[in-house]
Amino acid sequence: MGKSIDLAAKPEKIKDEELKEVxxxxxxxxxxxxxxxxxxxxxxxLLHELDGVNQKLQGIQxxxxxxxxxxxxxxxxxxIKYPEDEQADS
Length: 90
Description:
Elements: H1 16-68, E1 72-73, E2 80-81, H2 84-87
């Protein structure tokens, strides 16, 4: 069995080393929570940035479609591939 506590002589506070350990763990918990908050704030900003980039890409795709029609574009070379039914018309 574990240690028994003498109920007649209840301590009024925990030992200093126990208090220090509890304080350290709570401090670490608070630091981790703050870092999670910072990460979530950065994630939110990045999602807004991604939305802006996606909107820009959609605009470019629309401009290319207006200029060249429906195409498949090789983004490495700039080569255009037309759908099969339109190649015969070229």
